Amino acid sequence: MNTLTQLKTLIAGELKKPAEELDENIEVGNISGWDSMTHIAIITAIEEQFDIKFKLREINNITNIISIAELVEKKQS
Amino acid sequence: MLFNSLDFLIFLPIVFAGYWFLFHKDLKVQNAFVLVASYVFYGWWDWRFMGLIFISSLVDFTVGQALYKAEGSGREKYWLWLSLAVNLGLLGFFKYFNFFTESFAYAMNGIGIQVDPFTLNIILPVGISFYTFQTLSYTLDIYFGKIKPTKDPIAFFAFVSFFPQLVAGPIERASNLLPQFQKKRQFDRQLAEDGLKQILWGMFKKVVIADNCAVFVNQYFQQPDAYSASVLLLGLFYFGIQIYCDFSGYSDIAIGTGKLFGFRLSLNFNYPYFATSLADFWRKWHISLTRWLTEYVYYTIVFTKKHLGKRAIVMGIFATFMLSGIWHGAGWHFVVFGAVHTTGLIVEYLTTDIRTKMTARYGWAFKALGYLATLTVVSIGFIFFRAENMQHAMQYFGELCDSSIFQLPNEGRKLIPFCLLFLGIEYIYRNSTYTIQKLKFPIAIRWSIYYVLVLSIFYLQPDQPIDFIYFRF
């Protein structure tokens, strides 16, 4: 399973909706259920699953799910 | 210069003509023209205000360059602190100096140490809270690596002072507005027509609805003890309509004016009175401020303290909404306004799971309860928002807590049908950016509606023009 698919499964679990409903291209703020409170839960869950730590600056630059996938891959490499 | 004034009615076509017909060939010249027009617009209130916006712009333009050059050296944060110190220092001095000195003296006297409050006769510069946050967003976005600094001072100074949204928002992020100053704008007839319609709707909301509600609201808030609780409750309902139409009306005029010049400003209101929770309300009310505070204050606190789990979110909500309260004005009643919303949002956050379960079980009935609870908290907050001070707010609140609240109001009822009609129309068109954007009627009916709106702006406004409420922030 690639990073993007893993991320979508994880995020879908946090948002309690099917992974197929998530569009990785649209801004995270426009995804239904993704608000300032679920945002922190999602980031924390990603950090735990991929065993990485985000910097505040990196979190501030998240736009869509693809940008998160790129960030995760960059931190893992 | 007020949007609802003759001065602006003359100013706007002159700037529009100069912008598209005289200075349109060279982007820098066109931006310089916008800059001069914006300073004239702002200086119309008091020419001395121009100095402050100039200092604020100059500091952030310089800091932006220096911060970017210092990247990786560890000195970035010093430049950020400099920008924060200057901008918040100016805001603190002009807006909060007397509030802090008076509160300090009051606290000292409370513990038995006699201190006379030291106050200064300071004029509050119009819109200082708005443009300070806008210029700060530029430096913060460079610090967080979202944008690169601009080398074009004219574009930057025009971005900070852009007259449509200078004094009451939307608070634009540098990443949205600044690039629009850096590329050639083409006149787009469709966009301009859309802008004119939005201006018309905004002006109608402000002059016809908000200002007429204000007549009743002012009367009831001036002497709460002279009216029954049900009349005061009606006054609170009118204030809810007034503040919404006043502020969202201003935003519509600002966004619409931006469209006339080929700019796309951010959405600031999204039918907040149909929110089913307090968090939802703040996603729909003064969106540009909520986003600013969420991104720079809330996330900074929550992510730096995320090891604390839920407590980090509670801390984030507390800091963000208490700050939102005090941002609105220097007074304890604004602190309480912030506290009312803070408490509501924290309770809402801590009960998320149970509310989700109840919604699944009871469906629309529980949603309706959520709607009522939201409306109640928002209304209580508005008492403190509208009052002159704490004593005044408590007096209004006290008079409301009376059994006469269950009687029919014995006066001031004539606006009720109009307000309900307005809310009904807003509900029907809640998927449009603004209510009259996509009217699906034959052309003759649509134009009749526009004419009626124009005529009502001229004939249904109160005798004296009333300032936009948010100008004082």
Question: Which structural traits does this protein have?
Answer:
heterodimer, A: 77 residues, mainly alpha, Non-ribosomal Peptide Synthetase Peptidyl Carrier Protein, Chain A, globular, B: 473 residues, 2 domains, 18 helices
DSSP E strands of chain A, number: 0
Quote the beta fraction of chain A.
under 5%
What is the element string of chain A, with H for helices and E for strands? HHHH
Q: Per CATH, what is the topology of chain A? A: Non-ribosomal Peptide Synthetase Peptidyl Carrier Protein, Chain A
Structural class of chain A: mainly alpha
CATH architecture of chain A: Orthogonal Bundle
Largest interchain contact? A-B, 13 and 19 residues
Could you explain the architecture of this structure?
The complex is a heterodimer of chains A (77) and B (473). Chain A has one domain: Non-ribosomal Peptide Synthetase Peptidyl Carrier Protein, Chain A. Chain A contains four helices and no strands. Chain A has helices spanning 3-15, 36-50, 56-60, 65-76. The two termini of chain A are 17 Å apart. The mean pLDDT of chain A is 86. Chain B is mostly helical and 473 residues long. Chain B has two domains: 6-111 and 122-185, no CATH class; 191-472, no CATH class. The longest helix of chain B has 35 residues, at 76-110. The model of chain B has no long low-confidence stretch (mean pLDDT 89). Chains A and B meet through helix 2 and helix 3 of A and helix 11 of B.
